[in-house]
């Protein structure tokens, strides 16, 4: 006699809701199984632009909205049911016309053409360098995309390829600009400007990429107090920041030591300067002010304030008023919070 196996009936409690025919109404998922509480998206009623959502929360059920980055459409629990826009990451809601997207609270840098970035050389390859710019993919800097001794339009020769490590080697820091982007998001950099090139005479620090505000210029020169002189700040859009002693750029009328430089020799003299590995002498006063500025930028990022030209200056003034010197208060969260609050108060007054 054959044995017939019957599927077990679902367990029914008194709280289950019955349908009009006296049966039990059950919610099924896409596979036909019973949907558990964790399978259905959590509802986030009353979400407005700027509100914070977590993965799996329903942002809206209104069909007029189009889903954007950081969202997906939930599958209807029943045939003919409506779809909801659900968040796929933790972030804030952004609404542009009828497009609904989620901006991540913390994310890796996504390169865009024209961005000024600070990077570190990872590998020296044939005719190119591989550069870390805090993006999902490492960037590429071609030998043809840098200034070479003898002029910017000089043809690259086999000798230049053999001497490629004299320009940049592993571990070197540089400031560059994003020139092109490939289909898979790989960035190509260039340093064909006298304001770009190798970085030295300073300190390197990192913050979250989203904490640097996009500005007209990301290279700042600040006049410091206590005899520190001028300090250059390179605010990379990718969250890599370099703070260094100010160096006077070369012009046609004067070289690095005040000597006259003709326009035909300008590119050659500039190239020799920006590829030097020798740090200049930095006074203790300048070192102290560099450290103070680094702590200000770190405090701004830690307290969720966008780093830009105005906030760096206001934060530096607040740190001077608090008599916070060097790196002594870098790890003190309360001191950094006081500096940020004072800087925000100054901005509101202004």
TrEMBL record:
Keyword Cell wall biogenesis/degradation: no
Subcellular location: Nucleus
Alphabetical list of Pfam families matching this protein: ECR1_N (PF14382), KH_6 (PF15985), S1_RRP4 (PF21266)
Keywords, in A-Z order: Exosome, Nucleus, RNA-binding, rRNA processing
Any GO BP: TRAMP-dependent tRNA surveillance pathway
Record-stated family: Belongs to the RRP4 family.
Protein's name according to its UniProt entry: Uncharacterized protein
Domain (K Homology): residue spans on this chain: 202-248
InterPro entries reported for this sequence: Exosome_cplx_N_dom, Exosome_RNA_bind1/RRP40/RRP4, KH_dom_type_1, KH_dom_type_1_sf, NA-bd_OB-fold, S1_RRP4
RRP4 S1 domain: residues covered: 108-179
Chain ranges of the Exosome complex component N-terminal domain: 52-96
Disordered, as annotated region: 30-56
Organism: Arthrobotrys oligospora (strain ATCC 24927 / CBS 115.81 / DSM 1491) (Nematode-trapping fungus)
GO-annotated molecular function: RNA binding
